[in-house]
Structures are given as C-alpha cells and as structure tokens.
Specification:
- The complex is a heterodimer of chains A (256) and B (344).
- Chain A is mostly helical and 256 residues long.
- Chain A has a single domain, classed as MetI-like fold.
- Chain A has 11 helices and no strands.
- Chain A starts with a helix and ends with a helix.
- Chain B has 2 domains: 2-224, 3-Layer(aba) Sandwich (Rossmann fold), CATH 3.40.50.300; 236-343, Beta Barrel (OB fold (Dihydrolipoamide Acetyltransferase, E2P)).
- Chain B has helices at residues 40-48, 90-99, 105-118, 134-146, 164-181, 192-198, 216-221, 226-231, 249-257, and strands at 2-11, 14-24, 29-33, 55-60, 63-64, 75-78, 152-156, 184-189, 201-206, 209-214, 236-241, 266-271, 277-278, 286-298, 301-308, 314-319, 331-336, 342-343.
- In chain B, the strands form 4 sheets. In chain B, strands 6-7-8-3-9-10 form a 6-stranded mixed sheet, sandwiched between helices.
- In chain B, α2 (90-99) runs parallel beside α4 (134-146).
- Chain B starts with a strand and ends with a strand.
- At the A-B interface, α7 and α8 of A face β6 of B.
Chain lengths: 256, 344
C-alpha cells in the first residue's frame, strides 16, 4: 500500500515537476534559471509589451478558430454519416483515423510537398487547411462516442412525426450530439494552438504567418528567456482549462 | 380501409415477406401475431414507410401510399423503445409532430392539452423522458402519435418493455383508448395472450406468410392448421399413422369412433385441454383412460398432467376443484366428444 502511494507520488513528480519549475521561473526576478532573484511580475510586463508575441498570438488564434470551425463542421457531419448510415466499412473507418496516428513530421512533409506540387501560395491559410486535415479526425472520433448510447429509432420517430431530413438533423440529432461536438471542437482548438511541426512546414517564408509555437521556437534559439516562461505559463493554463472543459462535457454526455 | 396486396420483401437471400394480402377495416384493432422472425415487424415497417416492398401495393382509403415517405403518411408508429426525444420535455415531445404541420400555436396548445387530458399525463408537462416511469413513457409516446390524429396507429410490441402488472393495466388502457379515438390500430406482437385480449382480428404469421386471419374467438376455436393450433392456446396432439394402424390400439380406437375416416391417412389430431371431460356419465361418445402424473394448481382450477392409453404422450386436462386432492398414479376415465378433435 505504502509502495503504491510512493510510486504514484514519483509518477506525478515526473509528469509535473518540469511544469512547476517553468511556472516558478516565470516569476524569477533574476532571469537566470540557476539563481532565484526574488518574486516579480517583471517578465509578464515585458511579455505584454512585446509586439512580436502579440502578432504571433493573433495568428495562432486565427488559425485555431478558423480551422476548428471548419473541422468541427466537417468532422461532425462525417461522424453522423458513418454512424447513422451504419457504414461498417474498414476502409472508411481506417482512413478517418489515419490523420490521428500518422506522425506529424510525415504529415507536415506530405502537406508541404502537396502545396508545392499544386503551386499553392503558403501563408496562414495553408496552416489553416493543414490543421483542418488532422482536426477533422479528432472531432469525428469524439463526436462518434456520442452515438454509443444513441437510440436510432428516435430519428425514425422524427420522420414518422412529419419531419424531413434537415429538420430532424437540426431539431433532434444535433442537440443530442452537441456536447460531443463542443468537446471535439475544444480538443481541436487546443491541438491547433499547440501545434508546431505542421505549422512550421506549411507557414512559408517570412514572419507574417508565424504562430506562437513557431515564435517560441525561434526565440529559444537565443536562449530561454523568462519571457518565454511567462508565455508558456499562460499557454499551459489555457490548455488545461479547455481540456478539462472538454473532458467534463464528454463525461456529462455519457451520464445523460 | 387499408388494403395490402401482394407484398413481398427480401433482405439479400432471406425472404422476409412472401406475397402478403390483407384487408383491415377502419377503426379495427388488428394484430399481427407470430414468432420472432416471421416477418411481422417488416410488414409493419412497410406500412409505416420505413421499408419499401420489392413488389405489391399498400392502398389506404383508395389511395396508393406504397412509395409515400414516412413523413407524408397518415400513419404513426409507436416504437418498441418508445423513442422519446431525450432532450425535449413531455409537452415538447407531444407537440413536435404538430409543429411540423402548418398549424397555429393556439391550435397546437389546444390539441396537446386535450390529448394529455385523455392519456392522463397532466402534471408531467415539464418532465424529461429520463424522469418518467415505463408506463408514463409509453403514454407520452402514445399521446405523441395520437395528437397527429393518424388514420392508422402502428404499434410495435407495445407492451414488451413493461413489467407484468403494468402490462395488464396498459392492456385495458390501450383497448379503451382505441375505442375512444376510433383509430385503426395495427399491433405487432409475439404474445398470443396480448393479441387475443386486445385485437378484433388477428393475422397469424409464420415464415413471411399469413397463415390465418380471423377473430380471436374463431382463431381459438378453429385453428386452421397444426402451426396455428400449436401457437394459439394450449392443445394436445396425437399422431395417427396409417402404417401401424393394425397393431396400435390407439389408432384402432380412433378409427372405430369415426374421427379418422380414411384408415390409410396420416394425420395429427389435436384437442384442447378444456375439451376433455372427466366424468362417470357416459353420454360423451369417446372414452379413454389415463393415469395421473402430476396435479398443477392454478387457483380456481386444476390442471392434470396424465398419461393416456391413446398414445397422446403426456396430456393436459383441465379439472374443477373437486380434483384438488386427487392422488398421483390414480386412474381416471376421460370422456370427450368426437367433434372436439381437429384433423390436420
């Protein structure tokens, strides 16, 4: 029993100590990771004065919002199509999942090659398209879990009571699967905000389409400044909130 | 009147329905009865428009509705699972169908209130389906269909999800509601008791075919063949085999009595437990002996399980309470009328 608790403690330390260190360093006045110079909000002030970071943040939010909207629409319809039409086709199920498990670097290279082949101008829009590709898979997977306890006869009941396809979808199917759609969208949004490799490959030259993860990467080449620690603290906080909301939504939906 | 003519339907190589012909009068409580897999649910889904037949026609009041979509049919289906919309409350569930028609809000409210009154759902307006009991859920589902004033209400095993005491209560309620609304009810069931109690007319189905269509009374008293006799109520069967009629005393007895006229025939005889009488009075014109194996009490009456000298195997005989204390292995004389035997 004691060993189990010790093991759990070690595991949590291993998982969260680096994050705790990062967050505490963001309040370190000295600016050096090895010396504690006292508590300070200095780096947060500097962060908010940095225009480059704000530009990157705006880019990230644009990419995340637009790609999430597109991906949740397509992903939801895909999930509904697979579940309601009872498509039990291994090829379709497989192709839907592939963007989730394919290594990011492979996807990044393939997307870049594809964009180059069709002579597509790179920029924010190409990042958006690339993020839509993998986000569709995640949204679809999350929405499909909503159909686990779904009584298909309620769709027929709606038809039977005089509603056609579109009315049935808006009035019956969508409200029932909506917690799943929301959870999927939140997941897609966080994935898009955090995503680096694919954005890095498909952003094109120039700094106009730099996203936040890309900016952090370029800043880190000149040493980890406490500004980055402060920024990372914000990103961690943001990701946690969204992830917990998403988990809760899906949990509630399973109960109901 | 609903006329179903020459309906056939196959799923792959499985023939679900084979040339079905039926006529159902307006205002009738009609039941499709058969074992699972006999095609009764497929037929119900064809009438409601969820399946299209391979061939044949569905004519409702001289109008061909074979290819009409479910949302345009004057029929409504009461689903086995009730299929209530989980995110809508009772009022929203019931008014959903009316909101799809071009009806004013005042009219909708009026009709919904009237139907809730009739199905005793008052006070449950704001409940979600998850907060309702099984019986209440069924009444909501029923109200949701009836508020649309369908020409035909289709019921898919409506009582199967209820427990036994509630089932009995809902049987009476269903019958009352049907008489009240004068709507044609077509009910699918595998439970012969449900069909006998509720329906004005029953179609017995087996293997995608209709075997017999009659009123419960006729169906029970004159089942058309071995399948119906075996499926509806309880019946004892004896096999009459011409090949050994010289040696078998039972066969001789049946021949002598005139029940079996052609001594070279091969047939099965069936007799209902309540048609076998136990008496010392010899006016009944067919007699056989039996030995009691088991006495089963059913409250007021007794069921005797006995072994007869006829070759019935174990037979079931209904007796009155004077047989409550009859001993096991005691011999009894059984009498019946030769007209009680059915020949298949």
């Amino acid at each position: 029993m004691k060993f189990n608790k010790l093991y759990l403690l070690l595991l949590f330390c291993f998982l969260y100590m680096p994050i705790v260190v990062l967050i505490s360093l963001s309040f370190n006045k000295s600016g050096l990771p090895t010396v504690w110079g006292g508590f300070s909000f200095e780096w947060y002030v500097k962060l908010f004065q940095n225009e480059k970071i704000f530009k990157a943040l705006t880019n990230t939010l644009i990419v995340a919002t637009v790609s999430t909207l597109i991906a949740s629409t397509i992903g939801t319809l895909l999930a509904v199509g697979i579940e309601l039409k009872k498509v039990r086709n291994n090829i379709i199920e497989g192709t839907v999942f592939i963007p989730m498990i394919i290594p990011d670097i492979v996807m990044a290279i393939s997307l870049l090659s594809f964009f180059t082949l069709i002579q597509f101008t790179l920029g924010l829009h190409s990042i958006i398209i690339s993020h839509v590709v993998f986000n569709i898979a995640f949204v679809c997977a999350v929405v499909r879990t909503r159909f686990n306890h779904f009584d298909h006869s309620i769709i027929e009941a709606s038809y039977d009571l005089g509603a056609k396809n579109i009315v049935t979808f808006i009035k019956i199917t969508l409200p029932i699967i909506f917690p799943g759609v929301l959870a999927g969208s939140l997941l897609a949004f966080t994935l898009s905000v955090d995503e680096f490799i694919i954005a890095f490959f498909t952003a094109g030259a120039g700094s106009s389409s730099t996203t936040l993860p890309m900016l952090i990467y370029s800043m880190i080449r000149f040493g980890v400044t406490p500004e980055i620690n402060a920024l990372s603290t914000f990103i961690i906080l943001f990701s946690f909130i969204i992830l917990f909301t998403s988990l809760r939504l899906n949990k509630e939906s399973v109960i109901s | 009147m609903l006329r179903i003519s020459n309906i056939s339907k196959s799923f792959g190589i499985v023939k679900a329905l084979d040339n079905i012909n039926l006529e159902i009068d307006n205002g009738e409580f009609f039941s499709l009865l058969g074992p699972s897999g006999c095609g009764k649910t497929t037929l119900l889904r064809i009438i409601s428009g969820f399946e299209l037949p391979d061939n044949g026609e569905i004519i409702l009041n001289e109008q061909n509705i074979t290819n009409t979509k479910p949302y345009n049919r004057p029929t409504n289906l009461l689903f086995q699972s009730y299929a209530l919309f989980p995110h809508l409350n009772v009022i929203q569930n019931i008014s959903y169908g009316l909101q799809r028609e071009k009806i004013s809000k005042i009219e909708i409210d009026k009709r919904v209130n009237a139907i809730m009154e009739k199905t005793s759902l008052n006070g449950l307006q704001d409940r979600k389906p998850i907060e309702l009991s099984g019986g209440q859920m069924q009444r909501v589902a029923l109200a949701r269909c009836l508020v649309k004033e369908p020409k035909i209400l289709l019921l898919d095993e409506p009582l199967s999800a209820l427990d036994k005491s509630l089932k009995e209560k809902m049987k009476i309620e269903l019958k009352k509601i049907q008489k009240d609304f004068k709507t044609t009810f077509i009910m699918v069931t595998h439970d012969q008791d449900e069909a006998l109690v509720l329906a004005d007319k029953i179609a017995v189905m087996d293997n995608g075919e209709i075997i017999q269509v009659d009123s419960p009374k006729i169906l029970y008293s004159s089942p058309k063949n071995y399948f119906v006799a075996n499926f509806i109520g309880k019946m004892n069967f004896i096999e009459f085999n011409a090949s050994n009629n010289e040696t078998n005393t039972a066969n001789k007895k049946l021949l002598n009595s005139g029940i079996i006229k052609d001594k070279n025939s091969k047939s099965i005889l069936g007799i209902r437990p309540e048609d076998i009488y136990l008496t010392i009075n010899e006016t009944l014109n067919f007699e056989f002996e039996a030995e009691i194996i088991h006495v089963a009490y059913h409250g007021q009456e007794v069921e005797l399980i006995a072994k007869s000298d006829l070759g019935f195997g174990e037979i079931s005989i209904k007796a009155d309470k004077s047989f409550h204390n009859v001993e096991k292995n005691s011999k009894i004389s059984c009498f019946c009328n030769i007209n009680s035997f059915k020949i298949y």
